[in-house]
Amino acid sequence: MADITSSLAAPARSTRRFRWSTLADHAILITGSLFMLLPLLVLLQTASTPDIETMKYGPGLYFGDQLDDNFRKAMFEASGFSGQNTGLSMFKNSLILGLGFAFGKIVIGMMAAYAIVYFRMRFATMAFWLIFTTLLLPLEVRILPSYEITQKLGLLNTYTGLIVPLIASATATFFFRQFFRSVPEELVEAARIDGAGPVKFFIDILVPLSQTMIAAMFIIMFVYGWNQYLWPTMITTEEGMYTLVRGIKQIVQVLEGNEIPQYGRANMLAIIAVIPPVAIVIFFQSWFVKGLTESDK
Question: What is the pLDDT at residue 170?
């Protein structure tokens, strides 16, 4: 009888331990989430209170009623000398830069990977590793030669100059190469028997198969382009071509003057700058995970 009682009590204790471990896991995750969200809450709080109160008392524990006014100032009121760099124009420039980076890097990465995997070139492997080694070179190493070429071509203060010099991506080429190498050889043979040429095979077969990988690369490249600061700072000298990240920096520099710092406007622009990357990640989240983990075709 004692053995039966102890055997029944053992699962109860293990269940209790499992529940406590689950509670501890969730507590750690919630704590980490709150820790990550705290800066955003501080931005939201300072964007909702008058600038004078923020200057006197710093961030507080309450929310004010200035969100609408600061949003209007951030999006529609111009600043600077030319009066062209409104928040709306900077948002448009950042969006064009992010989408241009994403689509351009995906197209060039897919075509480069397709040539390396499926075309019988003598030095294909060497070409791939030469492309791959460019990952070891940060943007700061090649930014001066890229700027010099862009300037000589007359592409300063243009969307072409913002996007094209940095459009090649070794990261996209690497991931698409690994993806194409996992495509079954039987599928390639079947397409060849059906009379599909290189272009038809690429467009009708590889591109539909690569949808999840394209979504994953789109997230990475869009966020990379959206958060660019150094390259737009060098390429754009006209205020009408400023991106959001560049514009926020300009407003922060104004804080050092004799006027009342525009904390609400600067923090509202920072919140607006966070929204598109977060929305892209949330929308493509499931495709992002599948694109980086899925191997079955």
Answer: 87
d(CA 8, CA 2): 10
Tell me the three state secondary structure of residue 60. Answer: coil
Q: How many domains does the chain have?
A: 1
26 in any annotated domain: no
Amino acid at 166: L
The predicted model scores a pTM of 0.82
At 218 the pLDDT is 92
For residue 203, tell me if it sits in a domain. Answer: yes
One-letter amino acid at 151 equals Q
Residues of the chain with pLDDT under 70: 1-18, 80-84, 252-259, 291-297
| Amino acid at position 215, single letter | A
| 109 vs 250: CA distance, rounded Å | 34
For 257, phi then psi, to 5°, come to -80, -165
Token pair of 235 as six digits: 């390429």
User: Taking the alpha carbons of 244, 248, 254, 259 in that order, is the dihedral positive or negative?
Assistant: positive
pLDDT at residue 8, rounded to an integer:
47
Which stretches of the chain are DSSP H helices? 2-47, 51-57, 67-76, 87-118, 124-133, 139-152, 159-163, 170-181, 185-193, 198-201, 207-209, 211-226, 230-235, 244-254, 263-283, 285-293
- With respect to residue 52, please indicate whether it lies within any of the assigned structural domains: no
CA–CA distance, 264 with 46 (Å, rounded to integer): 6
Write down the pLDDT at residue 114. 92
CA distances from 287 to 87, 216, 221, 224, 295 (A): 31, 6, 15, 18, 13
For residues 217 and 109, the answer to whether their CB atoms sit within 8 Å is yes
- Tell me which residue range forms the domain holding 178: 87-294
Q: Which residues contact 131 (CB under 8 A, 6 or more apart)?
A: 112, 170, 173, 174
